[in-house]
Amino acid sequence: MMKSADLPDVISVFPLPGALLLPRSRLPLHIFEPRYLTLFEDALKTPERLIGMVQPYSVAGREEDVLHSIGCVGRITQFSETEDGRYMITLRGVSRFRIKAEVDGFQPYRRCEVSWDGFERDLGQSERDAAFAREGFMQLLTRYFDVLGLSTDWDTLKDADDELLINSLSMLLDFQPEDKQALLEAPSLSTRRETLVTLIEYTMRGGDTEDIMQ
Q: Which residue of 53, 54, 79, 110 has the fewest C-beta atoms within 10 A of its own C-beta?
C-alpha cells in the first residue's frame, strides 16, 4: 500500500470522459493514441508507475478541454501489448487528487501539479457503509437491470463487500460524465452509495414504465 510520502507533486494525466477510477478499485484501459502510448511508456520508467485519470469537459471558445479539478491516480498493475503496438493495461486506484495547476513541458500529454490534501482516507483500509441496507439496494438494482435489459453475475455482486459493490457499480454503470464526477467526489462511501441510488432511480424514472418504482 502506498503512503502519502510516495505520492508526487506533479503527475501525468489521462483525460477520458466517462471513465471513473476510485481508490482500491481496478480500471482496464485500452491505449492506442500516440501521446498516451508515450504517457504509458514514461510512467513505466518511474518507480511509482502512476497515471492520473481525470474527466475533461468542453468550454465554448477554448480549443483544449478543461479538466475537472478532482481526479484519481492509479498505479499500473498489469499490461499487455497487442501485435499492432497498442496496450491493454489495468490501473489500481490509489488516491484522489485536486489539480492546482497544469504544468507546461515538452511531453505530448498533459501534466498537473496536484494536492493530495483531504483524501488521506483513500490510502487506508476499505471503507464500510454502516447505514447500507443491502437487501433493499439489491432489489432496486435487480429492477434497474431488468428495465435496461442488462445481465450480470448476481452471485458475485451479492458476495462483494460494501466498498467493492458500490465502487464497482459506480465505475461500470452507464451514467453521464458529470454524474460519474459526482460519484468520484463523494466524500465517503455512504455518500457515494446515496448518490448511486439517486442516479439509478433517476434513470428508472426516465423510462416508459410508470410503475417502475412502485
A: 79
Residue where the block lists cell 493514441: 33
C-alpha cell at 106: 515538452
Give the model's pLDDT for residue 30. Answer: 93
Strands (E) in the chain, as ranges, are 10-15, 26-31, 50-54, 56-57, 66-67, 70-81, 87-103, 110-115
Dihedral sign from CA coordinates of 39, 175, 164, 185:
positive
| Of the candidates 201, 196, 200, the residue with the CA atom closest to the CA atom of residue 184 | 196
Q: Which residues contact 60 (CB under 8 A, 6 or more apart)?
A: none
User: In this model, does residue 214 exceed pLDDT 70?
Assistant: no
Start-to-end CA span in the chain (Å):
45
Q: d(Cα 192, Cα 155) in Å, to the nearest integer?
A: 22
